[in-house]
Amino acid sequence: MDKNLLLQDVLSHLQSDLEQASLAALSAHEAATHEENVAENKYDTLGLEAAYLASGQARRVEELRQTLITWRQLRPRPFDIEQGIELGALIQLAAEDGHEQWLFLGPPGASMKLQLADQSIQVLGNTAPLGKLLLGKKPGDEISLPVGSRQQVFEVLAAT
């Protein structure tokens, strides 16, 4: 699987999310500043609620903008056994029950599932609990992830 194609998919999804969030923020701002939302008495909170929504939407747009900038700086490199898993790695994991999954490890903020060559790939940030555990690991290593009151064990099958 081509990690650069995966990266382009992530960037495309993030760009689309940013465009949608920008439209939502614009709509929320227009609602917050519309003359019909001016409070008629101290109990009329429609304008205040619209302003809170607009503020939240604006924060979401900025978060997506920053995530997109960070992901654009990612340059996936071939796996180096000396370094172990690092940002830009494509990892195949096996759970104790035999279930296998592919992960694409990158900077935070872009959790999504992608399809590439009939393969489902989970995009994972390096600040996620599983992402943190994977950093520096090599094929054959096991990791243990606390899930509720038990530990879920995974084996790294492959990394590219």
Polypeptide structure, described:
By secondary structure, this protein is α+β, with helices and mostly antiparallel strands. The protein folds into 2 domains: 3-73; 89-159, Roll (Chitinase A, domain 3), CATH 3.10.50.30. Helices cover 40% and strands 26% of the residues. The chain contains 3 helices and 6 strands, in the order H-H-E-E-E-E-H-E-E. It has helices at residues 3-33, 46-72, 129-134, and strands spanning 90-95, 100-106, 112-116, 119-125, 142-147, 150-159. Strands 3-4-2-1-6-5 form a 6-stranded mixed beta sheet. Strand 5 and strand 6 form a beta hairpin. Helix 1 packs antiparallel against helix 2 (46-72). It is elongated and about 65 Å long. The termini are close together. 20% of the residues are buried.
Describe the protein's topology.
Elements: H1 3-33, H2 46-72, E1 90-95, E2 100-106, E3 112-116, E4 119-125, H3 129-134, E5 142-147, E6 150-159
Parallel strand pairs: 2-4
Antiparallel strand pairs: 1-2, 1-6, 3-4, 5-6
Helix pairs in contact: 1-2
How many structural domains are formed by the residues?
2
Pick out the low-confidence regions. Answer: none
Mean pLDDT: 90
Count of β-strands: 6
Described by strand count, sense and barrel closure, the largest sheet is: 6 strands, mixed
How many H/I helices?
3
Helix and strand sequence: HHEEEEHEE
Cα-based radius of gyration, to the nearest Å = 21 Å
Structural class: alpha+beta
GO biological process, one term: regulation of DNA-templated transcription elongation
GO molecular function, one term: DNA binding
